[in-house]
Amino acid sequence: MIQFDLITLFPKMFKSLDYGIVGRAQKAGLLQLQYWNPRDYTHDKHGRVDDTSYGGGPGMVMQVQPLRDAINAALHRHSRESGNPDDKPKTIYLSPQGKLLTQKTIENLASEKKLILVMGRYEGIDERVIEQDIDEEWSIGNYVLSGGELAGMILIDAITRLLPEALGDPESAHQESFSHSNNLLDYPHYTRPEEIDGQKVPEALLSGNHKAIEKWRLQQSLGKTWLKRPELLKDRSLNAQEIILLHEFIQKMRNQP
Ligand code: 4GT
User: What atom of ligand 1 comes closest to residue 140's alpha carbon?
Assistant: First the structure.
């Protein structure tokens, strides 16, 4: 079971997590989402949670007080329920200024019992919240969104599919995370029919020979990575068998381009 406390002005956006594996995980009690809306913590009579930026320039900034009070409300509920002041959940701010999330990061976060995710809006949040209230800052990619909610949902989705009981087939996430933590792309997948419009399923997959299938898949993972994302191979050393398989892949490709 993993719990997320979501600090957001738009809790209804998270309804997209009611579908598929993540929806099932919620219904099965493997995943719990709780919402804390900074709007409910503002002291402003008009309900404002943002203000203009010191130094000028366009756009508004989320103010410290409503945000910090919402985070603290989540922390207080946690310490009241756990009774242990030493296990404070991590607070995470999702922003383009964070370190890039990888499958490795996701695997590490998946072992936490509870995470507090802070979703920014407007131009972002007051820097003093990041300094005082945030433990880790993560980005989902080098591009800018109108809010942190979609990034938060991506993080929750990626973590949830790794929870041991979250999948119908417990092998599948494990297998795939293996190829990812190995810095290789997934191998190609095929299903019935065996032939369509003259396109055939590769012979090796029809052989029923598990060793041959495993070898073909590793070769495809190596070859596709070399073709599509060669930079990934720089972060990974190849063993003798992998070097042979990759050379064979490249050779075959040169024979029938
Ligand atoms: C990009 C990302 C993110 C945004 C990302 C603060 C106001 C941030 C809008 C928010 N954009 N959030 N987490 N690449 N935009 O992860």
Answer: 16
